[in-house]
Write a structure and sequence with these properties.
Largest interface: A-B, 45 and 34 residues
Number of strands of chain A: 20
Distance between the termini of chain A: 43 Å
Mean pLDDT of chain A: 87
Distance between the termini of chain B: 18 Å
Number of helices of chain A: 17
Strand content of chain A: 15-25%
Largest sheet of chain B: 2 strands, antiparallel
Number of helices of chain B: 14
Strand content of chain B: under 5%
Shape of chain B: globular
Oligomer: heterodimer
Helix content of chain B: over 70%
Mean pLDDT of chain B: 90
Strand order of the largest sheet of chain B: 1-4
Strand order of the largest sheet of chain A: 6-7-8-3-9-10
Low-confidence stretches of chain B: 317-321
């Protein structure tokens, strides 16, 4: 067994030397030098927009740097296309799907080899090779199955198998664990490959415990600049996050106590299109109710139905003692229901349009004249109030980091002064600094008597933020945990379909 | 970087390309053709481009929500033939014009708009089908013949009349353009068009009735095709079932040349105006230079592809993150 220390004497597999990349006026990566040695796992840590993903994509040849060089096994190299990096033994796995849904699992895993062998595809050979890689990542699926028939957790594992099938010398994992049901199995595979094949790995994740679990050292980026490096023994949450944010952090969940008033939102025997279960619950004024559950448990559908984005099969939604049951998102808004959808980019934002345009979205009336100056002033106010970091309110939201983009979606919902606010994954993929700021906003809202529903896969968020946590399993609410009762363990058991034992 | 720079950059990038080519073409023609830089010639260009400009305003709105309308040419032919039939049946002229315009808008709303926007069928399939139906009906009703409309004085006046020295078709086309600019820039509906094209789901969840927006743009474009068909009949003093053949493709090219994206959400009517004028100046220049007009579509194709290619290259360096 190789020692777990940092191997420094060997030639690094890959080294970036003063890599710089600019997008327009934003310097995403600023003269960053990092080396990855054989058998080593290097974590790239940093807030959203700090340049981690850009650096990873440069390493993998997906984008070209403006200046600086890549040194591959001691030799200066230029990757012109992603294929070059792949041939050089560098594989990148990201959150973005890179598969062809209509092809089989086997074909997808061996996609890099399909063009080889003079264009002749030997199906059986491909399936045999794919089966070996699939076994390695612990996915028991027939290679002949079509990819689109797989479930969510399985899909991510195929993405991983696809990268490993290229037998990489360096595996770059960019936020892949967020959608993985069991990241530990992935870590075991990576550790084994680092040991047996001396593979190097680059780990990008928001979860500090994953960095602690797997990385030999962490390189911390802030605003594109390398601000520090932490060795294995220095990898504490506080150390890491303080370095990432650039200031000392106080407690993330400093929830002030708020008196909970009469119900402001009630779901009465609501049946969504997801399942036949009748769902009933209520949220009081100033109350934060969490909804926990595994992927596909029906959390997303529940929130979308209450907001009017989906039509309920039956049942009623009551806001402020008035039956509203919105049949469209605009009806939901009119009834005082604010909604921050699950995926901010595909469901929340017009990425090419400005912050002003995105914030004004819910206030347009068909035959009304637009008030441009008023829209701008409102946007500037929102940017100040929610500390949205941007050079200008006219900047397209695509130029914002995840956390700031999320604040734009939140600001739009808040501008309507909702009585109820439904938040789906309010801080997914959001850095710690922005996370703390979003929690402050939520705290302020409950202080004003807004009722809040938070649906989240981040258990710490639910435990730290909520007065009550509802757990869902297979389309039904299967449990309710009061503040204090809700722990990582109790939530996990209930979400898995278990029963409340305490 | 300050706000003005960002805004100016965003605005400029959408139609700088075609604007530059248009200026270059104008300079070249002004230098080589002495008739080019005359008021008469300018009015001539504007007049021959008037139908296209009107259709392109509607097409811009459709492209902004990420669609395309292949039925507009057929609809114009049907509009012209309908006008001939209505007038032939003794319907008062003003009523006939209103019926053609609103009938077109209704056809576009009910057929194209509802099938695409509400039922969710592909806009290419739907408008290919309806366009074929429109032109087919125009052929049937007219017996496949071009019908002279010279006897209707008001139509002749509409087509060749002047208002303060400017041909009426030019006036009408610019009024349509101006109304379009006002609607797109200064009304809630206009902003909804951009939002729907930019991200349909986000717009829907933000409370915008995206179905209404999609249906409406097809209706508006069809109504404008009705206006264009009346002007077209007036200018040519004939209603022909083969009128406006392929105008939807030329309009699409003009809109795309003007910087509107095929995927929707981005583009301006000012860009569309430049695109239309580029095509007009090009045709005019070829005629003045005595080059076969058959070269026009070839040059159009080359310029369109180069403009989009240039955009692609610029886009890659500027916004690949």
């Amino acid at each position: 067994m190789a020692p777990r220390g940092v191997p420094i004497l060997e030639t690094p597999i890959l080294e970036t030397v003063a890599i710089t990349k600019e997008f327009g006026v934003v310097r995403a990566v600023d003269a960053v030098s990092v080396r990855i040695s054989p058998g080593e796992v290097v974590a790239l840590a940093g807030e959203n927009g700090s340049g981690k993903s850009t650096l990873a994509r440069i390493m993998a040849g997906a984008i070209r740097p403006d200046s600086g060089t890549l040194v591959l096994r001691g030799v200066e190299t230029r990757f012109v296309r992603p294929r070059d990096a792949l041939d050089a033994g560098i594989a990148l796995v990201t959150q973005e799907p890179s598969v062809v849904p209509a092809m089989t699992v086997g074909e997808n895993v061996m996609l890099h080899r399909l063009g080889r062998n003079r264009g002749v595809v030997k199906r059986r050979e491909i399936e045999r090779a794919a089966a070996a890689v699939l076994a390695e990542v612990g996915l028991a699926v027939e290679p002949s199955r079509r990819f689109e028939t797989l479930g969510p957790g399985e899909r991510e594992l195929v993405e991983l198998a696809k990268a490993l099938a290229t037998e990489p010398d360096i595996l770059i994992l960019d936020e892949v664990t967020t959608r993985l049901p069991d990241p530990e199995s992935l870590f075991v595979v990576v550790e084994r490959l680092c040991r047996t094949r001396r593979m190097g790995a680059v780990l990008i994740t928001h979860r500090l415990r994953e960095i602690r679990r797997l990385a030999h050292r962490a390189v911390v980026l802030r605003d594109g600049v390398l601000v520090g490096e932490l060795g294995r023994h220095q990898l504490t949450d506080l150390e890491l996050s303080s370095m990432m944010v650039g200031r000392e952090l106080t407690d993330l969940y400093a929830k002030p106590s708020v008196d909970i008033g009469p119900p402001v939102l009630e779901a009465v025997e609501l049946v969504t299109t997801r399942s036949n279960h009748r769902i009933s619950f209520s949220v009081g004024r100033g109350e934060i109710v969490g909804v926990a559950g595994l992927m596909g448990c029906g959390r997303i559908e529940l929130l979308e139905t209450i907001a009017g984005a989906r039509r309920p099969t039956s049942g009623t939604v009551v806001v402020d003692a008035k039956r509203v049951t919105p049949r469209s998102p605009s009806a939901g808004i009119a009834a005082g229901i604010g909604f921050v959808p699950d995926d901010r980019w595909s469901q929340g934002l017009l990425s090419q349009q400005s912050i002003v345009a995105n914030l004004a979205l819910s206030s347009h009336r068909t035959f009304a004249i637009t008030h441009r100056r008023q829209d701008r002033e409102r946007a500037e106010q929102a940017v100040r109030k929610l500390t949205i970091r941007t050079p200008s309110v006219d900047a397209p939201v695509a130029s914002l980091s995840g956390g700031n983009a999320q604040k734009v979606v939140l600001a739009r919902a808040l501008a309507l002064e909702p009585a109820v606010l439904l938040l789906s994954e309010p801080t997914r993929g959001v850095d710690i600094g922005a996370k703390a700021e979003i929690y402050r906003i939520i705290d302020e809202l409950v202080g004003h008597g807004v009722g809040i529903v938070v649906s989240s896969s981040d258990l710490f968020e639910l435990i730290g933020l909520c007065d009550r946590v509802l757990t869902m399993h297979d389309g039904a609410i299967v449990g309710e945990l009061a503040r204090g009762e809700a722990t990582e363990e109790s939530i996990t058991v209930l979400c898995g379909g278990g029963v409340k034992t305490a | 970087m300050n706000d003005t720079v960002i805004r100016a950059r965003a605005a400029a990038s959408s139609y700088l390309g075609v604007g530059g080519v248009l200026i270059a073409l104008c300079v070249l023609l002004a230098a080589t053709q002495e008739q080019f830089l005359t008021w008469t010639n300018f009015l001539n260009i504007a007049e021959t481009s008037s139908d296209l400009l009107i259709v392109s305003v509607g097409m811009t709105m459709i492209l902004l929500v990420g669609g395309f309308d292949l039925s507009l040419g057929g609809l114009m032919a049907l509009g012209g033939v309908s006008l001939w039939e209505l007038l032939g049946a003794g319907v008062p002229s003003w009523l006939a014009v209103v019926m053609v315009v609103f009938g077109s808008a209704l056809a576009g709303t009910v057929l194209n708009g509802v099938l695409v926007g509400k039922v969710g069928m592909s806009f290419l399939v739907v408008t290919l089908g309806t366009g074929s139906i429109f032109r087919g009906i125009a052929q049937i009703r007219s017996g496949g013949q071009s019908q002279s409309m010279y006897e209707y004085g008001f139509l002749v006046n509409l087509g060749s009349g002047k208002w303060g020295g400017i041909p009426l078709p030019v006036v009408v086309s610019f009024v349509v353009l101006l109304l379009g600019v006002l609607v797109l820039r200064y009304t809630g509906f206009g902003r909804m068009v951009y939002a729907t094209g930019g991200n349909r789901e986000a717009a829907r969840l933000a409370g915008i009735n995206v179905t209404m927006v999609s249906v409406a743009v097809f209706g508006i474009a069809a109504g404008l095709a009705g206006v264009a068909s009346v002007m077209n009949v007036g200018r040519l003093t004939a209603a022909s079932p083969t009128a406006a053949m392929g105008i939807e493709l030329t309009a699409g090219a003009a809109v795309l040349l003007g910087g509107t994206t095929f995927t929707g959400g981005r583009g301006t009517l000012l860009g569309t105006l430049l695109g239309v004028f580029f095509l007009g100046v090009l045709a005019n220049g070829l005629t003045l230079a005595g080059i076969s007009p058959f070269w026009q579509p070839v040059v159009l194709g080359i310029v369109l592809l180069s403009a989009l290619l240039l955009d692609r290259i610029r886009g890659r360096s500027a916004a690949s993150g």
